[in-house]
Amino acid sequence: RVYYLKEELDTFMRSKGMVIPQFTDSSWLSDFAVLVDITDHLNSLNLHLQANNPDDTGTYLNLISDLRAQFSARFVDIQKYKSDFRLLAAPFDVSVDEAAELEQMELVNLQCNDLLKSKFRDCEDDTITFYQKYLTEQQFPELRKHAKKFCCLFGNTFTCEQLFSKMKLTKSITRTRLTDDHLMMF
Questions:
Q1: Which one of 35, 40, 133, 179 is least enclosed by Cβ atoms within 10 Å?
Q2: Number of structural domains found in the chain
Q3: What is residue 152's DSSP assignment?
């Protein structure tokens, strides 16, 4: 609406002693006109999409119910591994009795080690690094085996996340080196 009233607004503002320089800048007015057109198009698209049935919550409820059913079917056995996941994710908070018999003594040694507890807090966002870097095969063979067993369940996800992190870092480094001279070469 401002675009269509720009001349009247300019006249009014000039009468109040205020000049709006954008109303005389043809480049700015062109950009503003494009923005008005895009906004108008998005508004009509939004109204068109709402016209189909804006309050169709039944469809969304069905989709969510289907999704819950798929999750339940996919992760039906996940509850029986709850203590194993807790041991992996929070080894200092798990009761020793929850661990398997072979892991109990190692878990006691781990929980009594203040240095490892500190290292775990430092690696809280990256549990895998903690198990790889600070739990030696000689001292904690069973806990490391446990970690490997349950981390490999999510290995593909972890690998993908690492790949995307490396790609993001590489793109950032490359972009900082990109100059007009580099672009002119192409």
A1: 179
A2: 2
A3: G
